[in-house]
Amino acid sequence: MNLVLWISQILLAVAFAGAGVSKLTQPKEKLRDRMAWVDPVPPTQVKALGAVEVLAAIGLVLPPLTGIATVLTPLAAVGLVIVMVGGILVHLRDLKKRDTEAARRLEIQGAILCAVLLVLAALVAWGRFGPYSF
Questions:
Q1: Which end of the chain, C or N, has fewer beta carbons within 10 A?
Q2: What is the mean pLDDT of residues 88-94?
Q3: How many helices (H) and strands (E) does the chain have?
Q4: Which tens digit of pLDDT belongs to each residue from 58-76?
Q5: Reduced to 3 states, what is the DSSP secondary structure of residue 54?
Q6: pTM above 0.85, yes or no
Q7: How far apart are CA 54 and CA 127, in angstroms?
Q8: Using the 8-state DSSP alphabet, how is residue 68 labeled?
Q9: Mind listing the pLDDT tens digit for each residue in 26-55?
């Protein structure tokens, strides 16, 4: 189970580091092509979300590798669970606003991806707070 948790931590870290860095480095107009949800959101909030995602990615892998403040790993996972609940809600909200079938399908795929990432983050939080803590 420890191996499953490590694999989950690494997958989550890679996914959120990539997403966070893109939100931090690219202008909102460029993000709009891949992430329609950024349209009504102020650019500062998009950047803040990117920073949270990058910090969570670091928190998933760095503390256990260094042996310093290992409690940050499950806390980072809990933070990602919260972020993914928000992501699901945003995609479901936007689903109602889309007028084409293709746009609706894209929102459903986004909600499913958020749900999968939520489950992985919840697994890491459970395992690292519980029976497989560092």
A1: N
A2: 89
A3: 5, 0
A4: 999 999 999 999 999 999 9
A5: helix
A6: yes
A7: 21
A8: S
A9: 998 899 888 888 888 899 999 999 999 999
Looking at the predicted structure, is the pLDDT value of residue 99 above 80?
no
- The separation between CA 84 and the C-alpha centre of its own chain, rounded to angstroms, equals 6
Residue 70, number of CB atoms within 10 A of its CB? 15
Exposure of 29 in the CB half-sphere (CA atoms within 13 A): 0
Contact between 9 and 118 (Cβ < 8 Å): no
**DSSP 8-state symbol, 35:** -
In sequence order, which residues have a C-beta less than 8 Å from that of residue 77 and are 6 or more positions away?
Answer: 9, 12, 56, 60, 121, 122, 124, 125, 128
Q: Which helix (H) or strand (E) covers residue 40, if one does?
A: none
Instruction: Give the span between the Cα atoms of 66 and 73, in whole angstroms.
Output: 12
